Amino acid sequence: MKEYFQLQFKLLNRKIIDFGVPLILAYTLLPVLFTLVLNYLYSKTEFAIPILILSSISFIYKLSEPNRNDFLKTIFNNKNYKKIRIVENLIFSLPFSLFLLYKFELLYFLLLNVLAVCFSFLNFKASNNLIIPTPFNKKPFEFIIGFRKTFYIFPVAYILTYISISETNFNLGVFCMLLIGLVCLFYYSNLENEYFIWNFNQSPKHFLKEKVKTCAINFTILSSPILLTLSIYFHTQIDILALFFLLCITYQATVIFAKYTAFPNEISMSEGILIALSFMFPPILIIITPLFYLKSLKKLKTILL
Q1: Is the dihedral of CA 276, 281, 282, 287 positive or negative?
Q2: I need a labelling partner for 178 at 20 to 30 A (CA). Which of 14, 83, 234, 245 fits?
Q3: 245-281: per-residue pLDDT in tens?
Q4: Smallest Cα–Cα separation from 59: which of 6, 5, 112?
Q5: Are the C-beta atoms of residues 88 and 117 closer than 8 Å to each other?
């Protein structure tokens, strides 16, 4: 059982490195950002704890996928299997549990951990014929795949937007749009086969233009409920809203360009560090976005016309 968790930890580290983020940065910056976001949410709305618990359960829910658990049962005996499921669920809920403990919400801390243990004994069987519909056509595979994996995040963002209006909290509404923008960024971590790029039969400039255009359109579709609602109820701050919207588009374009700078390999560590730095200092986008664009053009010329 110990070897199983060691393997999972190594796989996690490998995914972080392949994404181009140094391990020391991931294990220091992410916990800080996580705490800041939850603390902000806790201070701005009375619904913070239910949202926090539901968010934790949504992560735990993924561990109850039947095919995954059937595979574990073939490797471990029943006793070790149950131990693994309980420990996994508690690990996934740990960041949320620690935050509840930090806020002295002891009852909710106990509730979350009890739910985590209970969920370890459940397998949620989904019908093989069930297909989650998306608001996209067949062209942008990144959004189709990504949306079906993260669909549960969008209702949460829309509910938080409603709360931001009911409590006249513009910042919470902007946070919801930024959350959707961040989720969309991770859609472009999936690398397609080189053949599918070659099959476009377009110039590198046109290829990248279509990628960014498609991303901008689909992000607008997903964030439009938030944009329209905030524009109506906070019309005096529409300029700030437009600025953050354009910032989301810029980040998405930057990640798209970075994706193809090293294609067919993952984003290199140097690009990953620059992207991470841009989150702390957005003006750096003025430099790295055109830099990634030129590098991706050069790389795509070996594949496209």
Answers
A1: negative
A2: 14
A3: 999 999 999 988 988 887 777 777 677 778 878 877 8
A4: 112
A5: no
Residues of the chain with pLDDT under 50: 126-130
Tokens linked to 284: 């750096």
SS3 sequence, the chain? CHHHHHHHHHHHHHHHHHCCCCHHHHHHHHHHHHHHHHHHHHHHCCCHHHHHHHHHHHHHHHCCCHHHHHHHHHHCCHHHHHHHHHHHHHHHHHHHHHHHHHCCCHHHHHHHHHHHHHHCCCCCCCCCCCCCCCCCCCCCHHHHHHHHHHCCHHHHHHHHHHHHHHCCCHHHHHHHHHHHHHHHHHHHHCCCCHHHHHCCCCCHHHHHHHHHHHHHHHHHHHHHHHHHHHHHHCHHHHHHHHHHHHHHHHHHHHHHHHHCCCCCCCCCHHHHHHHHHHHHCHHHHHHHHHHHHHHHHHHHCCCCC
Residue 217: how many CB atoms within 10 A of its CB? 12
Q: Which two tokens stand for residue 89?
A: 């669920």
Residue 292 backbone phi and psi in degrees, to 5 = -65, -35
Quick: pLDDT tens for 90-137: 988 898 899 888 888 888 889 888 888 888 876 655 444 445 555 566
Token pair 């070790």 is at which residue? Answer: 80
Structure confidence at residue 226 (pLDDT): 93
> In Å, how far are 97, 134, 145, 263 from 160, measured between CA atoms?
21, 21, 24, 37
